[in-house]
Amino acid sequence: MLTESYRKELIELFESDPEKAFQKFEEELLPAQSKQIKFQNRNRLGGIVNDLYTGEVNKTGQRHGIGKLEHDGLYDKHIYIGEWLDDQENGFGIVFEGQLPESKYIGGFKNNKKSDHGILFLRNWSVYDRYEGEFGNYKYDEYDILWRNGCLQGHGTCRFANGNYYEGEFLDGKRRGQGIFICANGFRFHGEWEGNSFCIDSFQNDSSTKEPVLVIEDSNKEDDSRTTYHYIVFPRKKGIITYRDATIIGSGTIFDEEKPLINILEVTDDSITYEVRDEYFSDGKKPPVRPYIDTIHRNEKKSYTGIHEHSCRYDGDDVEWTDINSLTVICK
């Protein structure tokens, strides 16, 4: 068993240099007279790959004690060093997953899965987000490489590479329950979360700047499952502001690189002026134009609807259909 002081030493090193922590573990704790076991295993796509275990074994030949596993699957590369019990990863260890790797983790393991307290660096393009908290197991998608062996369950924190920060409850690796999200510009969302999205009804603006924020619901009435929410936070400045200057929480296509549906023009202490860029949207009183410019004040809600007529020729027949889209804009 590893001592508590040695675990803390590895964790401190892992925070600054995960590769060095892995190397330290291997050089100092992996027995010189390690047993090597080669065996075949299946990757996620069903192919056969060669695995290599180097480390201690028990009297029956099972992996037991300190050991290192190298699984070099094309899409599920997995390199683990740490404690073993009854032929499985159990105890304290370090694991790198994915080719780049996609994730780097140090902490507890139970039956080959992340468990108990741990720190996870998850690749976000060329940088890594940092997660810390209690990890547990759930039935994951076999193609979800990012949470391959367990995920955050319960209370945890995440420091995003862009400067944003979240502390609160997680379920199956997603923000769910009570939590606070602090944007890099200091703006805060405090309240209830569901599946990584902030619940409008629980919105609390506890930012000392008291800057206005837009909450946008984007839905397609032909497919209710396509409703998405976007929370747009603005820096402390006035004048022309584009979506690139805003911090966006949520998901969807409200902002497109070439043609954003919403483009922020001006932010004052009490209002936001913006463009609804899509010519199909209007407020129901004026004909849709491009762009449609509107101003919204605090505690105000505005709605825009768009009717999209489509037609095509399919299998020799002319097919026509109508999409009814809506934007609901709330100023908090």
Can you count the beta strands?
A: 22
Arithmetic mean of pLDDT: 81
Shape: elongated
What's the end-to-end separation, in Å?
Answer: 53 Å
Structure classification: mainly beta
SSE layout and pairing:
Layout: H1 4-16, H2 18-29, E1 35-42, E2 48-57, E3 63-71, E4 78-85, E5 88-97, E6 103-110, E7 113-124, E8 127-136, E9 151-159, E10 165-171, E11 174-182, E12 188-194, E13 197-198, E14 214-220, E15 223-233, E16 247-250, E17 262-267, E18 271-276, E19 281-282, E20 292-297, E21 301-314, E22 317-331
Antiparallel strand pairs: 1-2, 2-3, 3-4, 4-5, 5-6, 6-7, 7-8, 8-9, 9-10, 10-11, 11-12, 12-13, 14-15, 14-22, 15-16, 17-18, 18-20, 19-21, 21-22
Question: How does this model look, in words?
Answer:
The chain has 332 residues and is mainly beta. Among the domains are: 110 residues, no CATH class; 121 residues, no CATH class. The chain has two helices and 22 strands. It has a 13-stranded antiparallel beta sheet with strand order 1-2-3-4-5-6-7-8-9-10-11-12-13, covered by helices on one side. A six-stranded antiparallel beta sheet has the order 16-15-14-22-21-19, with no helix packed on it. α1 packs antiparallel against α2. The chain is elongated and about 75 Å long. About 3% of the residues have low confidence.
Provide the descriptors you would attach to this structure in a database record.
elongated, mainly beta, 332 residues
